[in-house]
Amino acid sequence: MAELETVILDRAGIGRALTRIAHEILERNKGTSGLALVGIRTGGDWLAEQLRTRIAEIEGEEIPLGEVDITMYRDDLGTRGSLPVGKTQIPFPLDERRIILVDDVLFTGRTIRAAMDALIDLGRPRNIQLAVLIDRGHRELPIRPDYVGRNVPTSREEKIAVEFDDQRQAIEVRLIKP
């Protein structure tokens, strides 16, 4: 049986969502002071880069950017077998910063929990805010995003795919129905 795929955001739609999120981040935080972006590898880190560019265009200054790999913080490592461990690169102190944690799709909340554990191991941020391109529901943990590009109600069997081009730019979000 073939899967049915529907484009729910195209490149322009993704761009509008990221621009809106950038404005919401700046409004809530009253500018860029003490702010930093940390993207979850892979996908969230690329979206964090795009948010950083938009914030720089709006405010005229770049905020610090980092990326976190959550492989060793996953709660399902025992059932998934060997996973490649990526690199966490946070070239700034986390202490007392307002961290915007960025991911592409929020589903159960377990990835976000793992990312927060990783960040707390590296420092003590003033707070951690969550920005996601897609929130598809089905939380298993009490995690709620602060900034959402688009809410897409799904069934557990459906999937969301965010496609990136060779320049790490998000170009399409698809809903895949079995």
Structure notes:
By secondary structure, this protein is of the alpha/beta class. The chain has a single domain, classed as Rossmann fold. The protein is built from 4 helices and 8 strands, in the order βαβαβαβαββββ. Strand 2, helix 2 and strand 3 form a beta-alpha-beta unit. The longest helix has 19 residues.
CATH level-two architecture: 3-Layer(aba) Sandwich
The major pleated sheet works out as:
5 strands, parallel
Q: Taking strands numbered 1, 2, ... along the chain, how are they ordered across the largest sheet? A: 3-2-4-5-6
Structural class estimated from helices and strands: alpha/beta
Shape annotation: globular
Give the radius of gyration.
16 Å
The count of strands amounts to 8
Tally of individual helices: 4
- Average pLDDT: 95
Which segments are poorly predicted (pLDDT under 50) over 5 or more consecutive residues? none
- The CATH topology is Rossmann fold
**Helical content, roughly?**
25-40%
- Overall domain count: 1
CATH C-level category: Alpha Beta
* Helix-strand string: EHEHEHEHEEEE
Binned strand content: 25-35%
| Termini separation | 8 Å
